Amino acid sequence: MATTTYDSTIPVCTSILRTLTHILKKAISTTENPDSLLSARLHENMYPLADQIRIATQYTENLAARLTGREAAQFGGNPSSFAESFERINTVLENLSKAEKDVVNEYAEKLGPTPVGPGVVVDMSAASYAHSIVLPNVYFHLGTAYGILRKEGVDLGKRDWYEGWFPRE
């Protein structure tokens, strides 16, 4: 059976956000003042954890909206607490769960204006947008969030990275 755009986007984004949720929950359980982690960075010229959460959730929400023909929810600035971070993640996970396979696959090849850089917009299919812009970005921001938390002393390992991909019972 051929893999569809739905198969290579919606479950993948769901798994990424489940992993993000897992590592953030682990951070809360092992840190006295978890909200202070939201300003932590890997390097002074890199975005802090709050931005990693904002970008991963907004890109995923934008993709879910584009693949289902609706307007994307806009979250605004960075989350200011872990509670707000989980609200955003849960909103996007709920929207992903509502994405119907046939609808996603129908929208996959539809061309639409796509921002690809500051002031640059090109016509691109939703599938191309997913695989060349969104997925690389959400993987990057998940990996950076993981790195920030490791740097800050949260005991994370490889199994924590895979947590979102493990089958649910």
UniProtKB/TrEMBL annotation:
Please report the organism this UniProt entry assigns to the protein.
Aspergillus keveii
Q: What is the lineage of its organism?
A: Eukaryota, Fungi, Dikarya, Ascomycota, Pezizomycotina
- InterPro entries attached to this UniProt entry: DinB/YfiT-like, DUF1993
Query: Under what name is this protein listed?
Result: DUF1993 domain-containing protein
